[in-house]
Design brief:
Elements: H1 8-15, E1 25-33, E2 49-51, E3 57-62, E4 67-72, E5 80-86, E6 91-98, E7 101-107, E8 117-123, E9 129-134, E10 139-144, E11 150-155, E12 175-182, E13 185-186, E14 192-195, E15 209-214, E16 220-224, E17 229-233, E18 239-244, E19 247-253, E20 265-270, E21 276-278, E22 283-287, E23 299-303, E24 308-311, H2 315-322, E25 338-346, E26 349-356, E27 361-366, E28 374-380, E29 385-391, E30 396-401, E31 411-418, E32 427-428, E33 441-446, E34 452-456, E35 465-470, E36 476-483, E37 485-486, E38 489-490, E39 496-501, E40 507-511, E41 522-526, E42 532-537, H3 540-543, E43 551-557, E44 560-565, E45 576-583, E46 589-595, E47 604-612, E48 615-622, E49 631-637, E50 644-645, E51 656-660, H4 662-665, E52 676-681, E53 687-691, E54 705-708
Parallel strand pairs: 32-36
Antiparallel strand pairs: 1-31, 2-3, 3-4, 4-5, 6-7, 7-8, 8-9, 10-11, 11-12, 12-13, 12-14, 15-16, 16-17, 17-18, 19-20, 21-22, 22-23, 23-24, 25-26, 26-27, 27-28, 29-30, 30-31, 33-34, 34-35, 35-36, 37-38, 39-40, 40-41, 41-42, 43-44, 44-45, 45-46, 46-50, 47-48, 48-49, 49-51, 52-53, 53-54
C-alpha cells in the first residue's frame, strides 16, 4: 500500500495564498457541529453568537432546537460541546453576553398581530435564570452597552410575509426596548420603550427594527430594514438622529437565474440594511442584505448624522465571484446577501468583518481609513453565516452558520489571526481581463506545460466552460475560460464531468447523462476553441442498462479512451462500477469492473480517472460529510486493463490505494467536503485534487484545490 508522503502542515503550505500587504492573516483552525450539543434535535442552527468575558465559552442562539448553546473553546483548535439552556416557552432570537451573564431574547408570540417576548438574564456558569422581563413585543437583535449598564433589544414585531404581498405596514409597530441592568440581572420596571414611529419615509407608522448596536458613548444605532432607515438613540430613548439608508446603483450584476454567470446588468436598489456595527463612536457600517425592494449586495459606512463615508458598491460581490462563491440561484433576488457586520481591533489594526449569507464568505476589511477600506481576505464559512463574534485578546474570530442541511449540519467555525500566509482561497479568477465567475469544478487534466484544464458540470448548463488554470501561482489562477459551443451557441444539455487531451490541441470530454431529462451519456470531441467537433454516443447495449449515475471521468492512452462510470448500472454486481473503453481507431467499446469499497453510510462511487506513467488513477469517494469514510486516490497498472467486449463477463480490477484524501480534506479546519471530483497529475508526479462546490446551491461554496507531493 502506498501512503502519502506529506504532512498536514505541508498541505497548508501548498494551499496557502499570499499574505498580501500584511504579515498577519486569519486562517480557520476548527469547526464545531452544533448537533453535538443537541444530538436528538431534528434541526439545529447557530444564529447569533457571543462569548463570555474570559473568552473561553461561546454562546449561541439555536432557534429550531429552542435552546441557547454553549461551546468550550479553552483549546480553540478543539472546541467541545458544553451543553445547552432550554428556553422556557419559546424560541431564542438573539444572545449577547456581558461578563458571565447571558442576555437572551425569547420570542413567545402567539401570532403576527399579538407579538410577545421576554428578555432573560442567565448565569453562564450555573445556567440559572437571574431575571426575566416582559418586553411587550417580539424581540430580534440584542446588544449590551459596553459598560454593562443596559441591554438594548430590537422589538421587530415582524410582518406576515404571506399577507398583503408581504409588505409593511402591518401593525403593531416595532420599537426598541432599553432595559437597565442590576447586580441581580435586570431592572424590568425601569425598561424604556423607544418610539420609532413617524421617522421613515417607507411605512413610517410601522417601523420594524432589525438590529441594534451600542457604541462607547452608550448611543444605540438601529436598522429599520423594511423601512430602509437608520436611527440613532440616546440611552434614555431620545432620537439623536435618523435618516434614510438610501439607494445605490450597481453596474455589473447578474439578475437572471438561468444556469449561467453573466454579470452585465445595471440596477438601482434601496440598501435595506440588516446588521450594523460601530467602528468608532461616530461611524458605523451596515450590511445591506435587502428585503422587500432591494439589497445592494454590498455594505456601507455612515456617519451617525447620515453622511456616506464609504460605499462598497459591487466590489464585495465581485470579489466573491472571483473565488467561486457566487450563488447563481440567488441572482434574481439579492445576490450574495451581505447580512452581518462585526468590528474589532486585532494587533492594533481595526477590522470590519462583512458576512455574506448566500456566498458563505466573510470579508476581512482593514478600516484604518474608514473612507478607503481595504479588503485583505475572504474566509470560507459554513452554509448561511448569520452571526460573528471576535475575541481579539485570543486572536480569534468566530462564525455561526445557521443552515442545517441534509448534507452538512449547522456549524460554528473558528478562525485565528496568525503570523502565517492566508490559506484561502485555493483558486481564483482574479487578474483576468473580464470578471469571470466559476464554480462546480469537476474533471481535470494536466497539460504538457504544467497548467491544468478543468470543466464545470451541469450546474452551469447554459454556459458549459473549460477553465484553464495556472498552478504556478498561489493561489492557483484561472487564466482563461473556454466556452463550449455547438454551432456557435452555448452547448446546452451537457454535464461535463471529465476531460482529457486529444493530443492535437483539443479535448475529449465525458458528459454524464440523465435519460429522465433527455440528456444522453456521451463523449464529445471539442476543439481548442471550445467548439464541439464530433461526439460518441453510447451503443444500444449500454443504453439498455444505463442509469443517471454515469460518466464521471475520462482518460486517453494512445487510441484508447477510458471512461469511469460513477456507480453500478442495472447489469452490474453490487459494489462494482464499470470502466468503459472506446478505441478511437476501431470504434469498438469494451468494459472492465472496478470493485467499489462498500459504503458504511450512503454510497461510494468513482468520480475521476487519470492516465499517468503506465497507470490509471481513480478518485473513489463516498457522498458523506461528517460520516465520511472513503475519499481516496487509487491506481491500477495499464497492463491490468484486460478489457472485454460488451456482453461478455467483465474482469475485475485490483486497485491499490495511493492516497487517503481525508487528512487533506480536514487540513484547513472545516468539515469534510463530500465531492472530491477533480484530479490532474504533473510529469513529476505531483497530484492536484479539487472539490465540486455544487454552484454554491445548498453548499458553503468552498472549493479545495490542493497539491499532493510526488511519492
Amino acid at each position: 500500500m502506498i501512503r502519502p508522503m506529506i504532512s498536514v502542515t505541508s498541505v497548508l503550505a501548498l494551499c496557502a495564498g499570499p499574505a498580501l500587504a500584511q504579515d498577519m492573516n486569519f486562517n480557520r483552525i476548527a469547526s464545531f457541529m452544533v448537533a453535538e450539543n443537541t444530538p436528538d434535535a431534528e434541526e439545529t442552527s447557530a444564529e447569533i453568537i457571543s462569548v463570555t468575558e474570559d473568552g473561553m465559552t461561546l454562546v449561541y442562539s439555536d432557534s429550531p432546537a429552542e435552546v441557547i448553546g454553549f461551546i468550550d473553546v479553552t483549546d480553540p483548535a478543539n472546541p467541545t460541546a458544553a451543553g445547552v439552556f432550554a428556553m422556557p416557552g419559546g424560541e431564542p432570537t438573539a444572545v449577547a453576553v456581558h461578563g458571565m451573564t447571558v442576555y437572551a431574547g425569547e420570542n413567545t408570540s402567539e401570532s403576527f398581530v399579538e407579538p410577545s417576548g421576554i428578555l432573560h438574564a442567565i448565569d453562564a456558569t450555573s445556567r440559572d435564570v437571574l431575571a426575566s422581563c416582559d418586553l411587550g413585543g417580539q424581540p430580534d437583535s440584542v446588544a449590551v452597552a459596553p459598560d454593562g449598564s443596559f441591554v438594548a433589544v430590537a422589538i421587530e414585531n415582524e410582518r406576515d410575509e404571506d399577507l398583503g404581498d408581504g409588505r409593511v405596514p402591518q401593525m403593531p409597530a416595532g420599537f426598541v426596548a432599553i432595559v437597565p441592568t442590576t447586580e441581580g440581572g435586570l431592572d424590568c420596571d425601569g425598561m424604556i420603550s423607544a418610539d420609532l414611529t413617524g421617522l421613515a419615509d417607507v411605512a413610517p407608522e410601522d417601523p420594524e427594527p432589525e438590529f441594534v448596536a451600542v457604541n462607547g458613548e452608550n448611543e444605540i444605532v438601529v436598522t429599520l430594514q423594511e423601512n430602509n432607515h437608520m436611527v440613532v438613540l440616546a440611552a434614555d430613548g431620545t432620537v439623536l438622529s435618523h435618516f434614510s439608508a438610501g439607494e445605490v446603483t450597481l453596474e455589473g450584476v447578474d439578475t437572471e437565474e438561468e444556469g449561467a454567470l453573466v454579470f452585465d446588468r445595471t440596477i438601482t436598489v434601496p440598501r435595506e440594511p440588516d446588521s450594523v456595527a460601530w467602528i468608532d463612536d461616530t461611524h458605523f457600517a451596515t450590511a445591506n442584505e435587502g428585503d422587500m425592494d432591494g439589497g445592494s449586495r454590498g455594505w456601507t459606512i455612515f456617519s451617525q448624522d447620515g453622511d456616506v463615508i464609504h460605499e462598497s458598491g459591487v466590489s464585495f460581490e465581485h470579489a466573491i465571484i472571483q473565488i467561486g462563491h457566487y450563488p447563481e440561484e440567488r441572482s434574481g433576488n439579492k445576490g450574495v446577501e451581505p447580512e452581518s457586520a462585526t468590528f474589532d481591533v486585532f494587533n492594533g489594526t481595526p477590522y470590519l468583518f462583512i458576512g455574506s449569507e448566500r456566498g458563505s464568505v466573510v470579508g476581512v476589511y482593514n478600516v484604518t481609513d474608514p473612507a478607503n477600506p481595504v479588503l485583505e481576505q475572504l474566509l470560507p464559512s459554513g452554509i448561511g453565516p448569520e452571526g460573528y463574534v471576535t475575541i481579539p485578546e485570543r486572536n480569534l474570530l468566530i462564525s455561526a452558520n445557521e443552515t442545517d442541511d441534509a448534507g452538512p449540519r449547522a456549524h460554528v467555525m473558528i478562525f485565528e489571526y496568525q503570523d502565517a500566509p492566508a490559506v484561502y482561497p485555493h483558486l481564483t479568477s482574479a487578474g483576468m481581463d473580464a470578471l469571470t465567475g466559476w464554480g462546480a469544478i469537476s474533471g481535470q487534466v494536466m497539460a504538457e506545460d504544467g497548467t491544468i484544464y478543468a470543466v464545470s458540470d451541469s450546474f452551469y448548463g447554459m454556459q458549459p466552460t473549460i477553465f484553464h488554470i495556472d498552478v504556478s501561482e498561489t493561489p492557483a489562477r484561472i487564466v482563461e475560460a473556454i466556452r463550449v459551443t455547438r454551432e456557435g451557441q452555448p452547448a446546452q444539455l451537457m454535464d461535463m464531468e471529465g476531460i482529457a487531451l486529444d493530443g492535437e490541441g483539443g479535448f475529449w470530454i465525458a458528459s454524464e447523462g440523465r435519460s429522465d431529462r433527455l440528456v444522453p451519456h456521451a463523449i464529445y470531441h471539442v476543439g481548442g476553441d471550445g467548439a464541439i467537433e464530433d461526439y460518441i454516443a453510447l451503443p444500444n447495449e449500454l443504453l439498455a442498462v444505463e442509469v443517471r449515475f454515469g460518466f464521471e471521468g475520462i482518460a486517453r492512452v494512445d487510441d484508447m479512451l477510458y471512461v469511469a462510470v460513477q456507480r453500478e448500472w442495472r447489469d452490474d454486481p453490487e459494489n462494482h462500477a464499470k470502466v468503459l473503453g472506446y478505441n478511437l481507431e476501431t470504434e469498438e467499446w469494451s468494459v472492465i469492473h472496478y470493485p467499489l469499497t462498500p459504503a458504511e453510510t450512503g454510497w461510494v462511487g468513482l468520480s475521476e480517472i487519470v492516465a499517468h506513467d503506465g497507470h490509471l488513477y481513480f478518485i473513489e469517494r463516498d457522498n458523506q460529510f461528517e460520516n465520511a469514510a472513503t475519499k481516496q486516490i487509487t491506481r491500477v497498472a495499464l497492463d491490468q486493463m484486460e478489457m472485454v467486449a460488451l456482453g461478455e463477463t467483465p474482469n475485475v480490477l485490483a486497485p491499490e490505494m495511493v492516497v487517503d484524501l481525508l487528512p487533506y480534506l480536514t487540513s484547513t479546519g472545516g468539515y469534510v467536503l463530500d465531492k472530491v471530483e477533480g484530479l490532474a497529475i504533473a510529469a513529476d508526479g505531483t497530484m492536484w485534487a479539487s472539490t465540486d462546490n455544487d454552484g454554491v446551491d445548498d453548499h458553503s461554496g468552498e472549493t479545495m484545490f490542493f497539491a499532493i507531493a510526488p511519492m
